Amino acid sequence: MKKTFRWLMGAAALSITLVASSCSDNEDPTPEPDGGFEVVRDDLKGEITKGEVVLESGTYKLTGKLIVKEGAKLTIKAGVTVEATATNEMASVRYIGVAQGGQIDIQGTATSPVVLTAQEHKPGAWGGLVICGRAPINKGATAVSEVGELNYGGTDVNDNSGAIKYLRIEYSGYAYNSEKEFNALSLFGVGSGTTIEYVQAFEGSDDGFEWFGGTVKANNLVVTNKLADVGDDLFDWTEGWVGGGENWYGIRTNAGNRGIEADNNSENHLADPISNPTIKNVTLIGGSQDKSSEPQALKLRVGTKGTFDNLVLSNWATGFDVENDEGIGYVGEGSLKATRVKFDNVTTKAKGKKTDGSSANVDGVFTEDASATGAGAGTAKPEWANNWTVGLD
Questions:
Q1: pLDDT digit string (tens) for 15-26?
Q2: Which residues pair with 106 in a beta bridge?
Q3: Number of other CB atoms surrounding residue 7 within 10 Å
Q4: Which DSSP string do the residues of 77-122 spell out, in sequence order?
C-alpha cells in the first residue's frame, strides 16, 4: 500500500512518500511506513529510523548529517539536487550516511541525474556519501568507519545497501585532519547485493571512490579533478575488497596523486580476505609528468591482488608501481596482472620494489596492446558518460 503525508512549513507545502508492502520469505524486506521523519526542504538533516523517505523533486538544503538507520530507506528521485550549506564547524559537517541495514535508492537517469553538491563550489566544501554494509572485511570481524563513525563489516557477501544509478557527487572531501577525510563515495563493507552504476565524483579534495573491504561491484564510474593542487587518488581500495567493476574513466590535470591506489591491509599484508578485485575497461589520465612526486597510474601496494583488462594509461610518470615482497607478492603467480594495456606518454611503464626499498621483479605484471580502448574511447570521453557528467568536454 502507499500513503502520502504532507506538512505545511510556512507557506510552502512539502511532501514525502512513505511506502510499505508485504513480502514473502524469498523477498528482501521492505521498510515499514511512517518513521516520523519530517522532510524540511531548507533544513534537511537528522536520522531516518524507519520507513521510506522520498525526496521527490527540486532542491533540498543539507544543513547537517543525514543518517539512514537500519530498517529505513532514503529514495531520491531523478533530477533532485541535494545541496550542502556552508559551515566552518567541524561538529556540523554535512554528509549523507547509510548505516548497516539501511538502504539508499538513487533513481537518476542519463538526462536527469541526481546531484549531491555544495553551496560553496570548492573541493572539500562538504563530506560526501558514506555507505556501510555487512560484507566481509579484513580489519576484524567489524570496524567503525573513519568518517561518520558507523559500524561496518560482517559475513554477508550478498548484503544489500540499495541501488545507485546516475549520480553526480560534487565538491566533496571535507577533512577533519590530514588522516581523516571524506571521499566522494566511501564504501565500507558493502555487499554484492548493492547496485552502483553511473556515478561521477567531480572536483573532490580526496579520493573519488574508495572501497574498504566488501564484495560490491561498481560500473561506469567517472572521476574528474582539474582544479589546481586538489584531489588525492581517483580510485582506492583496502581491507580486502573482492568486488570489481567495468568502465572506469578518471582524469586529473593537477598535482594530485595516483589513478589507482590499491592495498590489502597496511598492518597485516596477509590479512584475509585478500583484496582481489576484477576490473575491466579503464582509462586513467594524469597531470604533468614533471611533478616531483612522480605520479603513478596504478600504485599496487604489497598484499593486494587484482586482475585488470583493457587499460589506457595516459600522461603518467609511471604506469605500474608495484610493491612485491617475496612470499606476499603475486606478480609471478599471475594473481596480480593486467592484460591489454596501452601506454600513452608514460615515462616508465612498470617498476617494482620491496617494502625495504630494494628493487623487485615486475616481469609479467602487464601485457601491452596498442588497440586497447580503455573505458570505451581511449583518452576521449566515453559515449556512456554523455549528458549526466560535467567537466569532460
A1: 333 333 333 344
A2: 76, 164
A3: 12
A4: ETT-EEEEPP---GGG--EEEE-TT-EEEEE--SSS-EEEEESS-S
Cβ–Cβ < 8 Å for 364, 176: no
- Asked if 362 and 352 count as a contact pair (C-beta separation under 8 A), the reply is yes
Q: How far apart are CA 176 and CA 185, in angstroms?
A: 17
DSSP, residue by residue, 325-354: -TTS--TTTTSEEEEEEEEEEEEEEEEEE-
Hey, what's the torsion of the CAs at 138, 141, 144, 145, to 10 degrees?
40
What cell numbers appear for 7 in the block?
506538512
DSSP state at residue 41: T
CA–CA distance, 93 with 87 (Å, rounded to integer) = 7
The owner of cell 593486467 is: 338
For 251-301, the pLDDT digits (tens) are: 987 666 799 999 999 999 999 999 999 999 999 999 865 444 678 999 999
> Which contiguous run of DSSP H or E holds residue 285?
strand 278-285
Contact 277, 244 (CB under 8 A): yes
Q: What is the pLDDT of residues 355-376, one digit of tens each?
A: 888 988 898 999 999 999 999 9
- The secondary structure of residue 385, as a DSSP letter, is G
Closest residue by Cα to residue 171 from 135, 202, 206, 131: 202
Which residue in 260, 254, 263 sits closest to 205, CA to CA? Answer: 254
For residue 214, what pLDDT band results from cuts at 50, 70 and 90?
very high
Residue pair 320/350 in contact by the 8 Å Cβ criterion? yes
Residues 6+ apart with CB under 8 A from 139: 153, 212, 213, 239, 240, 265, 271
Residue with cell 575488497: 241
Read off the DSSP letter of residue 289. Answer: T
21 exposure class (CB count in 10 Å sphere: 0-12, 13-18, 19+): exposed
pLDDT-based confidence at residue 343 (cuts at 50, 70, 90): very high
- The single residue listed with the C-alpha cell 550542502 is 84
The C-alpha angle 120, 123, 126, rounded to 5 degrees, equals: 65
Q: In this structure, are residues 287 and 253 in contact, taking their beta carbons and an 8 Å threshold? A: yes
pTM of the model: 0.90
C-alpha to C-alpha distance for 36 and 44, rounded to whole angstroms: 14
pLDDT bin (cut points 50, 70, 90) of residue 59 is: very high
